[in-house]
Write a structure and sequence with these properties.
CATH architecture of the largest domain: 2-Layer Sandwich
CATH class of the largest domain: Alpha Beta
Order of helices and strands: HHEEEHEHEEEEEHHEEHHEHEEHHEHHHH
Mean pLDDT: 86
Structural class: alpha+beta
Radius of gyration: 37 Å
Strand content: 25-35%
């Protein structure tokens, strides 16, 4: 029967779109009543019954028995002679209930109902997905790679919902194939073109924070607090942690025995180096810890400028700055200070600022050297040619010439 087919169609919809039975019945009943209103002008005298077990529905109409000559509205009233044909016991003023066959409404009404239901259910599903994920912003979700495009990846979660992982939110060394399992954090949920858009991220500091919560029970239980996270995805991250229980070593708890806890996080982040730092409100000590593994000899805080001058032995400078200046940049972001590196030396000879050589060395060359923390002649000479080639964009010949000019100053 068409009735049964109609219910079967939307029972399949229910399974596919994860809409609960009570909501489905409510939507079906509303759809039927909208058809009744269009056809009869009202649905108040109709009972719509959805049969869960049988998978079909019934529509019953209630009409008042009136004299044949008083019949005005065949939808709300039934003549006494017609009522007697149904049951000879009917009398004036009583209510007659008879079943209305939806098939009698015609093919067009049935098609219209199908389309209406499809639109209603799809809209309901979109709304359900939006609200479900709106409350999950900041949570880690796991899904399967379904489609890979140039600018983004389509991921399907366990319930068949579509999630988007943009290229900008992927770790540079991420490489996925169709069918791969992916973990990421929900960073944004919005409605775009009337469709829910769920954006994931693997580069957000929140993703790293959630991974720590999964791997370190003390963080999950609130015994250790993550104060701040800064990271360059896939390269390096610094995590400041604090314990409210003096018996707990926050750094040791996060790293785990022989690095057991942090190794899982490092693997998930494509071998991103993670520095776990014990947070302190002592600014000098915090900066010192943030610049590990470099050993600092002195720090001068310039609060009004938001800067800090950091003094180190020459051999410690490269450790403080890090590859491409990454270590000092992240340390600055973590502590909230712009960090300037200065070298201390036991030698009696006075050093000379690089700006003093502007007549002999091009300004852009001097800027390249300053960018990697070399602001004096000796700071350049303390580094090997190979080290300078790696850390700057200068050619070896240029570096050799610069060293020659600087060396002449101390001869």
């Amino acid at each position: 029967m068409e009735n049964i087919n109609l219910i079967d169609t939307f029972s399949e919809f229910k399974e596919l779109k994860n809409i609960d039975r009570a909501t489905m019945i409510s939507v079906l009943e509303d759809a039927f009543r909208s058809v009744l209103i269009k056809r009869f002008g009202t649905d108040e005298n109709f009972d719509v019954i959805i049969n869960d077990d049988k998978g079909d529905f019934e529509i019953w109409r209630n009409r008042e028995v009136v004299k044949d000559e008083d019949l005005e509205d065949e939808n709300l009233q039934i003549s006494l002679s017609e009522a007697k044909k149904i049951d000879d016991d009917y009398e004036l003023g009583e209510e007659v209930t008879d079943e209305v066959k939806f098939l009698d409404f015609g093919r067009r009404a049935i098609l219209s109902l199908r389309q209406n239901l499809s639109a209603r259910i799809l809209e309901l599903e979109k709304d359900n997905i939006y609200h479900a994920y709106k409350d999950r912003v900041g949570e880690i979700v796991t899904g399967e790679v379904y489609q890979i495009w140039k600018r983004e990846i389509l991921i399907i979660d366990d319930e068949g919902n579509e999630l988007i992982l943009p290229k900008a939110e992927q770790i540079p060394s991420d490489f996925f194939r169709k069918g791969d399992s992916v973990r990421a954090v929900v960073v944004k949920v919005e409605i775009r073109n009337n469709n829910p858009l769920i954006i994931l991220s693997r580069t957000s500091p929140v993703f790293l924070e959630r991974l720590f919560e999964l791997e370190v029970p003390e963080i999950f239980d609130g015994l250790i607090t993550i104060k701040k996270i800064v990271r360059v995805p896939g390269e390096r991250a610094k995590v400041a942690v604090e314990s409210y229980d003096e018996r707990i070593d926050p750094v040791g708890a996060c790293v785990g025995m022989k690095g057991s806890r942090i190794h899982g996080i490092v693997r998930e982040l494509r071998n991103e180096n993670i520095d776990v730092i014990n947070y302190t409100s002592n600014t000098q000590l915090f900066i010192q810890r943030a610049l590990n593994p470099a050993k600092i000899t002195n720090i001068k805080i310039l609060e009004d400028q938001g800067r800090a001058e950091v003094y180190l032995r020459p051999e410690e400078v490269s450790l403080a700055i890090g590859k491409g200046g990454l270590n000092i940049r992240l340390a600055g972001q973590l502590t909230g200070y712009e960090l300037d590196v200065y070298r201390e030396s036991d030698e009696d000879d006075e050093d000379v600022n690089l700006d003093e050589f502007s007549d002999e060395i091009d300004s852009w060359v001097l800027d390249e050297l300053k960018a990697v923390g070399c602001d004096t002649a000796k700071s350049v000479l303390d580094l090997s040619v190979e080290d300078l080639v790696k850390r700057t964009d200068l050619e070896e010949e240029t570096i050799q010439e610069v060293r020659k000019i600087l060396s002449a100053e101390f001869e």
